[in-house]
Amino acid sequence: MGFPSVFPTGVTVYNKDKAYNGYTIYPSAKGALLVDMNGNEVNLWAGLGGFPNKILPGGYVLGTTGARTGKYAYQDQLDLIQADWDGNIVWKFDHTELVADPGKEPTWQARQHHDFQREGNTVGYYYPGGEPKTDGGNTIILTHENVYNHDISDKQLIDDKIIEVDWEGNILWSWRASDHFDEFDFDEAAKNVLFRNPGLHEEAGGDWMHINCVSVLGENKWYDAGDERFHPDNLIFDARNSNILAIISKKTGNIVWQIGPDFSKTKELRKLETWMDNRTAPFTFDSQRSSG
Q: Is the sign of the CA dihedral 185, 192, 264, 268 positive or negative?
């Protein structure tokens, strides 16, 4: 079967009456690219990567100057930086870990991946009514850390680690997923799958959770009604490979609310399972499917 040799590029659909008009920032081959609704370039931060990029008030952008390379790397960014409209770096964090890959000089790296949030609102970028800080404040960063945890696997793991750093780059708070393995409610079949192959990526290790996003809960009606699990300072995350959506207590680090990985327990969860199964994922740990 042949494939078309010409593809439409740029904006292909724009219904002004139904679209929420604004600007879009995304990491392109040229750098962090800001476009309007018609696809016109508004600004380009040449060479600035993004996993992802986020826009802050005043024309600032968050992103990275590069990614870790080689067979020991898996989705690790070297740093997280804030640049002004003209591309000048006004803030930088890279001191999560001193990485010493074989054959390379040790370098400090952020090992950031997938998400980060600047203090001031729950998602960490500008939106009407949300005011993330641009000249101070803390930043929540989703990072990696390689660990061995024989309760999970005898293989090296690419663990998901969440840190909070201040404007000066000091790590104020940290949380590792593997430390809470017993709280995630994996059944024995799922644990067996994990032990044998926790999502291995060559020498980098096993990407056993693969957390995609993390956000501060912020103000919400459930906390206002008295449910402490939904404290505004708590963090919510989702993990693709393990089919888990959960809330972390900022105070204790414990998992205080969770759905997944087993969606067969209740009628309500069985309804959710159909939606979860439609997501793109390399594997799941549902015991009903783990034998495959």
A: positive
* Pairing state between β 97-99 and 107-109: antiparallel
Q: What is the pLDDT of residues 206-249, one digit of tens each?
A: 999 999 999 999 999 999 999 999 999 999 999 999 999 999 99
Q: Which residue has tokens 């399972």? A: 273
CA proximity to 79, closest of 15, 169, 12, 8: 169
Is the overall model pTM greater than 0.85, yes or no?
yes
Q: What is the pairing mode between strands 49-56 and 60-64?
A: antiparallel
Partners of 117 in beta bridges: 140
Distance CA 72, CA 197 (A): 17
Dist CA 288 CA 151 (whole Å): 22
3 pLDDT more than 70? no
Residue with tokens 């790296």: 109
